[in-house]
Amino acid sequence: MTEGFQQKTWQDFYEQAWQLRLNFMNAEIAKGETQPLRIIQKLHHHQRTHQVEKNPKTNTVEFQQKSDLPKTQNNIHENAQGISIGATDKSLPGTALQEWHSMGDSHFSVPHYMQLDKTSFLIDLMEQLNPMALVELGAGYGQNLIELYYNGGPDIPYYAGEFTKSGVEAINKLSSLDAKLNLQGFSFDHTNPDLSFLPKLDSILIFTCHSLEQVQQVPVELLKCLAQAAPKVWVLHMEPFGFQMAQAQNQYTELDRIQQKAFEEKGWNHLISHFQLFPVCGFCLLEITRFKLVMSVVNLITCAKSLPSALK
Question: Which helix (H) or strand (E) holds 100?
Answer without folding.
Answer: strand 98-103
